[in-house]
Amino acid sequence: MLKQGSALDRYFRVTERGSNLSREIRGGFATFFAMSYIVVLNPLILSGPDSNGTTLGFPAVAAVTALVAGILTILMGAWGRHPFALATGLGVNAFVAVTVATNPGLTWPDMMGLVVLSGVTMLILVLTGFRTAVFKAVPEGLKTAIVVGIGLFIALIGLVNAGFVRRIPDVAGTTVPVGLGFEGKLLGWPTAVFVFGLILTIALVVRKVKGAILIGIITSTVLAVILEMTLHIGPSFDGKNFNPQGWSLVAPAFSGWAAPDLSLIGKANPFGAFGHLGFVAATLLAFVILLSIFFDAMGTMVGLANEAGTVDEHGNIPDVDRVLQVDALGAIIGGGASVSSNQIYVEAGAGIGEGARTGIASIVTGLLFLVAMFFTPLINLVPFEAVAPALVVVGFMMVSQVGKIDWQDWGIAIPAFLTFALMPFTYSIANGLGAGFISFVIIRTVQGRAKEIHPLMWAVAAAFLLFFSIGTIEAALGMK
């Protein structure tokens, strides 16, 4: 047990934040289970060939994804001292994959090189204090909206991962983008596992049972394993056939030891894209990556810190500079290892919901990722449907802060609404932030209260206008 008042207790502020060692360990496990899917999903996203016909390789991407996530999450815990976990960012990796696929002259090392350059730029902005200054310039009402938006986003991730909410194919000829289950019906045992897990987790949380979220995940996983072993349900997509009643991504199964393939480390080419695409096109791509990782992490950090209760009375996050430094390193190391930028994950909310309040939880999560490089049973054993209930419940906890927004002040209320509406609707934290920041500047100006706008908010709003105009700019330059 961790002694109260010991050097370790003081360093991690365990007692100060009302936590203890068992909570931190439970939280670390819960976060790992909630985000371990990235080790399987990232290789699928980065699976396409580049202009030379070269692929990164599933085993190598999986191994390095786990390695980088483990190292950075341990670093976040030991240096940043917050219960935040990092892994390859969904959104950035998809952008990287699409860009490689649609630009004939681009290779994987070239694209990962741009990620590295974006990370270096980010680190400079952190070390000069600019990124922290932007964080402090954001009005409190918008910071609350970020928490609410991430709550809605994380709940939607859980519902989609569980197959409870699904995208309606364009061939359906409807303007409704998503619907309940498959063709409006809830089908399959995996969905039943999700519903069971959700009811169980809610009941445990309402009863204030210690370890409620982790108990929900483990119990749902056991049920999923039993169902898969007896009914042989299989995944929803096995590479050839689609099964609407299958598991979302991981069909629960035991798998054994495998030596990790770390051959992708150091393969990035920071300036290769400039030679293949030209200075303007390569710079625009790097700018898009930079803005995405700049604001995604800031939004996630604000939301998680508020949920953990680690924000002080002035709205500041302790050790925020350290957190942002590790986050910037996530882009540099992730790009340099060819697995795309790593960033703080909203799924860390599962660990926070379990009671994690310090960096000890992150160290536990990071160690589990390092173990996952060699032994994948934990990753292949826990299906999305078993973890999704935790994300829905944590989403509720975060959305409950919506009452803190001043709904009578439309200069805050409308930007706040756009912020938390667009995060889940566009599946992007950065898009929600951009809409909120731009509308805040516009409305405050229309209200004749432009003097209340921090100068950095003008700069950020202008940057987001450019971000949203990238498609138009690329078309004007003949890049598409």
TrEMBL record:
It is found in: Endomembrane system. InterPro entries: Azg-like, NCS2. Keywords: Membrane, Transmembrane, Transmembrane helix, Transport. The keyword DNA repair does not apply. It comes from the Bacteria. The keyword Mitochondrion does not apply. It is a multi-pass membrane protein. Its main location: membrane. The chain crosses the membrane at residues 27-46, 58-77, 84-102, 114-134, 146-166, 186-206, 213-234, 273-295, 360-380, 417-443, 455-477. Pfam families: Xan_ur_permease. Signal peptide: none annotated. Belongs to the nucleobase:cation symporter-2 (NCS2) (TC 2.A.40) family. Azg-like subfamily. This is AGZA family xanthine/uracil permease-like MFS transporter. It comes from Pseudarthrobacter enclensis.
